[in-house]
Amino acid sequence: MKIDKGEIIHQQFVKMCKKIIFYLLFHAYFTVLKGIEMVNMKIVEEPSSYGMNNFNNQQTQQEDNQLKMRVPPSKFSGPQHLTRLVNKCFSKQIDSYTYKLCPFSNVSQHEDSYRWNPYNGILGVWQEWEIHNNTFVAMVMREGDNCGNLFRSMKVFLRCGNKNEIVNVSEPSTCQYHMNFNTPYACHPHAMLVFPTLSEELRNEWELIEGRLVNEEITIQGYKKRLHALFEKAGYYLSGTAKDKLSKEAVKKEEKKEKEENGEFDTLYQCTQEYQKIKQQLDALKMVLKDPMVDSKTKDSVNKMEENDKQNKNSKGSSKRKKFISKLTNLMSKKDNTHGES
Ligand SMILES: *[C@@H]1O[C@H](CO)[C@@H](O)[C@H](O)[C@H]1NC(C)=O
Ligand SMILES: *[C@@H]1O[C@H](CO)[C@@H](O)[C@H](O)[C@H]1NC(C)=O
Ligand SMILES: *[C@@H]1O[C@H](CO)[C@@H](O)[C@H](O)[C@H]1NC(C)=O
Question: Is residue 199 classed exposed, middle or buried when 0-12, 13-18 and 19+ CB atoms within 10 A define those classes?
Answer without folding.
Answer: exposed
